[in-house]
Amino acid sequence: MLNKISQAIADDWKQDPYYLLAEKSVDFFWGGGGGKIPFFGGFKELDPENIVELACGHGRHVPKYMDDAETVTLVDVNQENIDFCKQRFSGNPKIRFYLTTGNNFQGLPDASYSAIFTYDSMIHFNLIDIANYINDAWRILKPGGRILFHHSNYYGAEPGNFYFQNPGGHNFCSDRIFAHLATVAGFKVLSQDLIDVDTGTGVVKGLGCLSLCEKTDEYFSTCEKAREARTAHAVALIREKMKQKR
Fold this sequence. Notes:
This protein has helices spanning 4-11, 18-24, 26-30, 39-43, 62-65, 79-88, 127-140, 175-185, 218-245; strands spanning 50-54, 71-76, 95-99, 113-118, 141-152, 187-198, 203-215. The chain is of the alpha/beta class. It folds into two domains: 4-215, Vaccinia Virus protein VP39 (Rossmann fold, 3-Layer(aba) Sandwich), CATH 3.40.50; 218-246. The protein has a seven-stranded mixed β-sheet with strand order 3-2-1-4-5-7-6.
């Protein structure tokens, strides 16, 4: 369940002229945006066999990758967007639809998907919702599965700012914060590309970030080894003190 602020963010994207405008530029976007958009390079690093698109909106990206996928799962927080996509892709047996609560993939099966991506949506999300999505993404991905998440790199926001009070509607987050959240969730961060954003009043350098991460067990193994080393060190200290008292 979303808190009131997160729900307000979701409600802003039930019906919006953005979808029509973005549809018109989708070919330019997938072509690399004149070298300014790193998305396509990151997308090529994903296995699209069983792919999930988070915050799919009206599904403008789907025609660009659906032929390479065995299954496509479109996820959105707004029923209006899910209904639009159902009508748009009616009759396509490989496309599935899932209405999320806005911060997790509850209802989708464990270890079943090869990749999850989202672009131009997570930049607006509250940080707590990003953390929840990252954690649940690890659950539903197959071993070695990857996430490609486009998120904010704006950490100069006043505490409590609503997202549209910040440049380009970018909520509070950063590349390092995202990398930490992904790492402790069990992901290996493969790359992070900063994105310059034209906010309408000027270009802000590195306002966005595109993070590519892979599901592994390396972090948990590293933590366990560190805990074992700490325990061994503590035991050694206790034994040394006991010897000194004899």
